[in-house]
Amino acid sequence: MARLFLVFFLLFSLLGTSLPVSAKESTPAPQAKPADERLELFQRMGTLTGVPWYYLAAINQYEKNIQKRSKNEEPDKPRYTSIKIPPEKWGGFLNPNPDETSPVGIDFFHGMGKDGSGDNVADSTDDEDVLFTLATYIAKYGFTEDDIRIALWEYYRSDKVVDIISEYAQIYQTFQTLQLEDTAFPLPLRTDYSYRSTWGDARGWGGRRIHEGTDIFAHHGTPVRSVCYGYIEVKGWNRYGGWRIGIRDLNNVYHYYAHLGGFNKEFKIGDIVKPGDVIGWVGSSGYGSPGTSGKFPPHLHYGMYKYNGRTEWAFDPYPHLKKWERNEYRKKKKKK
Fold first, then answer.
1. Which of 5, 82, 144, 209 is 20 to 30 Å from 314 at the Cα level?
2. Which element (helix H / strand E) includes 234?
3. End-to-end CA distance of the chain
4. Cβ-contact 87, 106 below 8 angstroms
5. Are 49 and 132 in contact (CB under 8 A)?
6. pTM for the whole structure
7. Strand pairing report for 299-307 and 312-315
8. Mind listing the domains of the chain with CATH numbers?
9. Of 232, 82, 225, which is closest to residue 171 (Cα–Cα)?
10. CB distance 194 to 308 below 8 Å
């Protein structure tokens, strides 16, 4: 009887101690957000090569904006980066194997592909290999801002692309995160304003042309806000737009604010802004030489222009304005 009791006691003890372990194993560990994982990858490669992580993040963001997902890309091999180095650069211009992964073969044909993961394979679809390759290429030119700009120009052969990547890098450096998706409506919601879709309407002053934007009518002096995280590229007078300011965001979109009554002097060309920052005030400037004002009712002309790595074109901002307006109203309701 004593032996039988001992057997039951041991079985109960084993089951009892296994339950917490089983429960622990069945509870999934908190998953890192993709943005956090990408940031960790950029920082690790930056530490390894000496190239600031925010430049690697900026290159990746630029590539993401200009590339489309390949139909042949393996769905079971997710990537955290969007950088795609052309085969002729990766394996070497004269390399007969466009998918070369051997470091020895790549070196023989003077390709730039390198093994960054330590598996002795230089895979152009592997995040670590791609980032290490590009960072090593940049590091050959040096580590100052000017050195990096020269390296980027040698790689892309475009002044505009170099400027855009440098702007992205400054945005990431300023906020120290990749999670910069917040937006704001260009005017405070509590103010008196009105707008409708005016995309494509005819314009006569200065020659026949179409209206490339949305007019938001408001009182003189109404604050005008940045709708995004961005870099101030332009600030000053334009004979059509009057006092205007141009901001580029992380999606390769240039945001154009025109007919302002004045600028916020806290911001200058080259500064970084975030959603909601007041950049100026509604006015009626434009349609003439510097200082011309009052030729039309006060309003903000807001335009959006997309750059795809080759050309830049205007598109209708009205749907975006409605979306940002709705999102901001929702945020205000949640805070109540």
1. 82
2. strand 230-238
3. 68
4. no
5. yes
6. 0.85
7. antiparallel
8. 34-175 (no CATH), 193-335 (2.70.70.10)
9. 232
10. no
